[in-house]
């Protein structure tokens, strides 16, 4: 019985393979019939001088049409299937694959594989053209596979975005740049092998022999080329950007960015040039983003004499409560202090219990002044803070962003703010440090 079962299994497999071979043979016969129809139609319709060219062109158009049709049907089927799971967060892998469009690359690959199979059937009457057309299809397959790998990296990134694993996204960004460069090199080598029909080892060996000479002779050119690719892909810099380079003490607008040098126009209308490859290794501040967002930071301090700091008595609190920007703040704090002092011992001593200081009230005033200013972007950080004491005094830092990044407007806004705060500090009996009398 066991031998009979084994024999039946073998027989079934043989029948399946036979059916598959018959189907493939039928497909080949079908393609050959259409190829013959095109062949004889052109022969009977076109003058003899152009018959061969038009036969090859029409057959090639037929092959391309088949590839496009199969590609369209596969994309429709696969993407429709994946789309069913797109809105379901419990399938993050499928969702990330769909977002990266790697399914389209898979459809392209399958369609081209069928095109490679159909090539012999369609062009069996033109064996001399077969080699070149086969290389063309293989070349396209190389680029499709490279695109699939690139989209595979995008799928990984999309997956981590869905999972909100931002640390892995940063790591993936660092790795993906290397993988992309290596992938471009490998794809280029394979493409050259396919086009010229030579082995990859011959290309790699030749490259190894001339690499040392190329690096010595074309060092700056190679570094500039790599930098250009980096700048183009990262989109960190472009001609017209306002940048600052602390290493060279430069600040200006990029006038030209070529393979060897980058030209920068300084604000005093002079021109500076730096090696382009320096853009990879040097700290660069791109201020164009600030300009385009129409916001610009104010980060400046006023240094106060610590000896002018004091507790405020009730009379001084009542006087300062007439200032509109801190009226509600002082009335609220005054009630809290009066209520607390009624419950503590030795309330006649100023140091006991909670108190208001002139520097603290001024800090609140400066903050409210910035919050009420129409020239300050209220969607960004607004802060008034004390910095560490220095031998000159205590710095009070103003930190905020203007809603106008134009240089002249920015300077006017900044000057107006500090003009007001410097004079307003006198109302709080504060002394601003000044070392030399003017």
Overview of this protein structure:
This protein is α+β, with helices and mostly antiparallel strands and 438 residues long. The chain has three domains: 31-209, no CATH class; 231-293, SH3 type barrels (Roll); 296-428, no CATH class. It contains 14 helices and eight strands. The strands form two sheets. Strands 4-3-2-1-5 form a five-stranded antiparallel sheet. Strand 7 and strand 8 form a beta hairpin. Helix 1 packs across helix 2 and helix 2 (51-83) packs antiparallel against helix 4 (102-122). The protein starts with a helix and ends in a 14-residue tail after the last helix. The model is unreliable at 1-6 and 15-20 (pLDDT under 50).
Low-confidence stretches: 1-6, 15-20
The Rg value, from CA coordinates, equals: 38 Å
Ends: how far apart?
116 Å
| Average of the residue pLDDT scores | 80
Most strands sheet: 5 strands, antiparallel
General shape = elongated
* Major β-sheet strand ordering: 4-3-2-1-5
Please, how many domains? 3
The structure class reads alpha+beta
The helix-strand sequence is: HHHHHHHHEEEEHEHEHHHEEH
Q: What is the overall number of helices?
A: 14
Strand composition percent: 5-15%
């Amino acid at each position: 019985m066991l031998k009979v079962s084994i024999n039946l299994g073998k027989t079934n497999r043989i029948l399946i393979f036979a059916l598959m071979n018959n189907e493939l043979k039928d497909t080949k016969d079908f393609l050959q019939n259409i190829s013959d129809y095109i062949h004889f139609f052109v022969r009977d319709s076109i003058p003899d001088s152009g018959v061969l060219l038009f036969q090859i062109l029409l057959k090639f158009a037929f092959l391309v049409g088949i590839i496009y049709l199969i590609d369209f049907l596969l994309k429709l089927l696969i993407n429709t299937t994946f789309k069913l799971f797109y809105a379901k967060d419990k399938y993050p892998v499928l969702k990330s694959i769909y977002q990266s469009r790697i399914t389209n690359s898979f459809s392209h690959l399958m369609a081209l594989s069928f095109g490679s199979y159909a090539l012999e059937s369609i062009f069996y009457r033109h064996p001399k053209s077969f080699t070149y057309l086969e290389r063309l299809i293989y070349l396209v397959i190389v680029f499709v596979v490279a695109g699939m790998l690139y989209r595979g990296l995008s799928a990984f990134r999309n997956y981590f975005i869905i999972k909100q694993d931002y640390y892995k996204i940063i790591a993936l960004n660092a790795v993906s740049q290397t993988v992309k460069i290596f992938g471009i090199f490998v794809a280029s080598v394979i493409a050259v092998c396919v086009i010229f029909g030579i082995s990859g080892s011959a290309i790699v060996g030749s490259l190894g022999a001339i690499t040392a000479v190329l690096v010595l002779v074309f060092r700056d050119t190679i570094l500039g080329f790599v930098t250009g690719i980096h700048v183009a892909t990262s989109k960190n810099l472009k001609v017209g950007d306002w940048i600052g380079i602390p290493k060279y003490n430069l600040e200006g607008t990029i006038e030209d960015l070529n393979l060897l040098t980058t030209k920068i126009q300084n604000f005093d209308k002079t021109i500076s040039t730096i090696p382009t490859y320096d853009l990879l290794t040097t700290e660069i501040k791109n201020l164009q983003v600030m300009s385009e967002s129409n916001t610009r930071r104010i980060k400046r301090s006023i240094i106060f004499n610590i000896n002018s700091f004091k507790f405020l008595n009730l009379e001084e609190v009542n006087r300062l409560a007439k200032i509109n920007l801190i009226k509600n703040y002082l009335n609220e704090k005054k009630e809290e202090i009066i209520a607390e002092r009624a419950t503590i011992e030795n309330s006649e001593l100023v140091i006991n219990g909670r108190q208001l200081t002139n520097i603290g009230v001024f800090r609140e005033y400066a903050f409210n002044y910035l919050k009420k200013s129409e020239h300050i972007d209220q969607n960004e950080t607004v802060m008034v803070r004390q910095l560490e004491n220095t031998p000159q005094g205590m710095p009070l830092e103003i930190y905020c962003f203007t809603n106008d990044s134009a240089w002249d407007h920015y300077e006017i806004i900044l000057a107006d703010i500090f003009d007001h705060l410097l004079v307003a500090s006198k109302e709080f009996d504060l002394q601003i440090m000044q070392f030399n009398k003017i």
